[in-house]
Amino acid sequence: MLFAILAGPVLAGGLPAQAASFDCQQPELAADETAICETLSLNDLDVKMVTTFELLSGLLAMGARGELQDQQIEWLTKRGECEGDIACLTAAYTARMAQLATVYQDVQRPK
Which superkingdom (predicted)? Predict the structure, then answer.
């Protein structure tokens, strides 16, 4: 719920001219990146995923943060395998957000 509250204002402010995790204006984008830049729903998912990832990165201890970063790199590789397939990319983002939600649920909180 916390990341929904924090991510809400970012998303409500409108979409940037590019996806949050990379520059859509750079030459020679990969096929998955081009699809994300050209598809509003994928751009929205990218912004939400990056915002959630960054929030979690700030909450986790160094070792867990490193593991989260490794998982993100692995996920980015899998996302790239979708190439320009919008359904595949949507499923990849949906699965990653579910993984990040699980990480958030497992964050140690003060009692």
Answer: Bacteria
| Assessment of whether the complete model's pTM goes beyond 0.70 | yes
pLDDT, one tens digit per residue, over 76-90 is 999 999 999 999 999
Contact by Cβ (8 Å): 15, 44: yes
Provide φ and ψ at 34, rounded to 5°. -60, -45
Instruction: Please report which residue ranges of the chain form alpha helices under DSSP H.
Output: 2-12, 31-38, 40-59, 62-81, 86-105
Positive or negative, the Cα torsion across 54, 35, 33, 80? positive
Sign of the CA dihedral running 23, 99, 109, 62 = negative
